[in-house]
């Protein structure tokens, strides 16, 4: 087993064509190592979200190659990409993305229902995940009854529902105050250690980058040479 969880090789992504085309990524070479928390930084418009969408199989590159956990995404049809996202990748978004009418426990259980996991097994894993993120006592509350930090913890628990190999988090602390944001980032750090999952997080907060094993910078659709650092 290679120590690289996901890699991008000369990845380019353009939107539109001709002189008005927008070149979001301009030949990105990038790796996320297994069992690490990698932070991707860059100003707005640098290409962070575009790269996350490509690495997570939500979009396809204009050119280049992406390999996730040994699988070349270009070799998958739409059903294969859907299965990859469902079974091998967890997503955490800035906007939390919770279903308002469902309780915290029901939100966490949604990915497992999609996999048709038996109810008893599903309920047990939901309990374990809510305990992991410190919300065992909030299982029956709906998102509107939770703070922003608690909602993001539910989103992290949901991302871990199907025991993914990779969790992708796009500005997960962007709507939180600095103290709550750091607590969420520390939770992601703990998840790497306790669950053995690989985490890739886009952030612009220097305080949060300090918790990462590795920091990679994007600028104008390219990885900045010499900006890749380890703790």
TrEMBL record:
SUPFAM superfamilies: P-loop containing nucleoside triphosphate hydrolases (SSF52540). The keyword Transmembrane does not apply. Residues 6-231 form the ABC transporter domain. It comes from the Bacteria. GO terms for molecular function: ATP binding. Keywords: ATP-binding, Nucleotide-binding, Transport. SMART domains: AAA (SM00382). The keyword GTP-binding does not apply. This is ABC transporter ATP-binding protein. It comes from Kitasatospora arboriphila.
